[in-house]
Amino acid sequence: MSLIDPKYITDMTARINAIPDCSSLAVLEKEIETKFKLLLSQLEDQISILGVLNINVANITDVVNWVNNYIKHNILAPYNTALLLQAELVADLALLMQSIESKASSLSCVVPLNNSDITGGNLPGNNLMGG
Fold first, then answer.
1. Domain spans of the chain, in order of start
2. Which is higher by pLDDT, 68 or 122?
3. From CA 108, how far away is CA 85, in angstroms rounded?
4. Residue 118 CA, distance from chain mean position
């Protein structure tokens, strides 16, 4: 499962490696940054909405256990999926940023990388029910 087709990562890495100059590298970095920032923002919105419903109903009656199961399968499952997709996006971004840094070094230039601006530096989802 991924929001980014693995072919996109491969193609972008090839584009990065084929770039002949620093200004073109900076333009491509901005393109990548914009794409990932949008996708991560959408996931963070979804995680924020679903995370509010993160409740613990472990030792209650059968009816409440049914509600708990409903929440786990219909709310937390999409929430956990969004967290997984977010982690994959951050990993994909790291791969591309590493390629950009390597290419910038080979071209003897500096391309400002704004990964923390993209990820916000504070990713949610560390306190999930049941794990």
1. 6-109
2. 68
3. 34
4. 9
